[in-house]
């Protein structure tokens, strides 16, 4: 059975909905994935990282159709729930637009990370509930999620 590239993309996005932050694929499209191995540092849990790259979709509303495309912002990285024994790192680029005066505009139609964190909202909430404010767990969280 042969599949078209459009069907393959649809299948991939349907699959990704199960383990990515809720709503991410509504605003961003997957562009690349990399599975990287690195030297394990002291107190690190995972020796592999799964890097998923996303570019913002064209989310302009009808009243914003006058904006012209102007590339993408620098990527922002967000840590999410580990997957398949790999640290999961999301790399997200927002679209840049030019208005009729030639000024840069970035549409902020969705929040990328929990307030004051580098984690997805769901992961930040999970850590707060599971680990709480106990300072003994900071080292564990750091080993799981930070470089």
Verbal overview:
The protein has four helices and seven strands, in the order ααβββββββαα. With 147 residues, it is of the alpha+beta class. The strands form two sheets. Strands 1-2-5-4 form a four-stranded mixed beta sheet. Strands 3-6-7 form a three-stranded antiparallel beta sheet, with no helix packed on it. β6 and β7 form a beta hairpin.
List the topology elements:
Elements: H1 5-16, H2 24-27, E1 28-37, E2 48-56, E3 68-72, E4 76-83, E5 86-93, E6 95-98, E7 104-105, H3 121-131, H4 138-145
Parallel strand pairs: 2-5
Antiparallel strand pairs: 1-2, 3-6, 4-5, 6-7
Give a count of the beta strands, DSSP E runs of length 2 or more. Answer: 7
Strand order of the largest sheet: 1-2-5-4
Q: Biggest β-sheet: count, sense, barrel? A: 4 strands, mixed
What low-confidence regions span 5 or more consecutive residues with pLDDT below 50?
A: none
Query: What characteristic shape results from the CA principal axes?
Result: globular
| Averaged pLDDT | 77
């Amino acid at each position: 059975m042969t599949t078209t590239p459009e069907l393959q993309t649809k299948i991939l996005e349907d699959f990704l909905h199960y383990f990515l932050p809720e709503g991410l694929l509504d605003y961003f499209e997957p562009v690349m994935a990399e599975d990287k191995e690195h030297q394990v540092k002291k107190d690190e849990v995972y020796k592999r990282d799964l890097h998923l790259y996303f570019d913002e979709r064209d989310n302009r509303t009808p009243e914003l159709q006058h904006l012209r495309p102007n590339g993408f912002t620098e990527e922002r990285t967000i840590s999410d729930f580990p997957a398949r024994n790999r640290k999961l790192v999301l790399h997200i680029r927002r679209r840049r637009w030019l208005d009729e005066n030639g000024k840069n505009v970035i549409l902020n139609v969705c929040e990328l990370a929990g307030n004051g964190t580098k984690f997805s909202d769901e992961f930040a909430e999970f850590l707060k509930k599971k680990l709480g404010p106990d300072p003994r767990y900071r080292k564990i969280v750091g080993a799981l999620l930070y470089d």
